[in-house]
Design brief:
The protein has 58 residues and is mainly α. It contains 2 helices and no strands. It is rod-shaped and about 75 Å long.
């Protein structure tokens, strides 16, 4: 959902530039949106944390 909202925001920003005649800027904004990468690992690379050890008083 978050990525959908980000894509919509980027598209609207590019549309605003295009409306003002800044077509090259609009193209650059749209191109940056497709090139971006993230530092986060892919979901398949993530490992689940180990189960917590049960602590007992006694």
């Amino acid at each position: 959902m978050k990525s959908l909202l980000k894509k919509f925001e980027t598209t609207m920003v590019a549309a605003a530039f295009a409306e003002e005649g800044e077509f090259e800027t609009a193209r650059q904004i749209m191109k940056e949106d497709t090139v971006r990468t993230t530092d986060r690992p892919a979901k398949r690379d993530q490992q689940r944390p180990a189960a917590r050890k049960e602590l007992r008083v006694g």
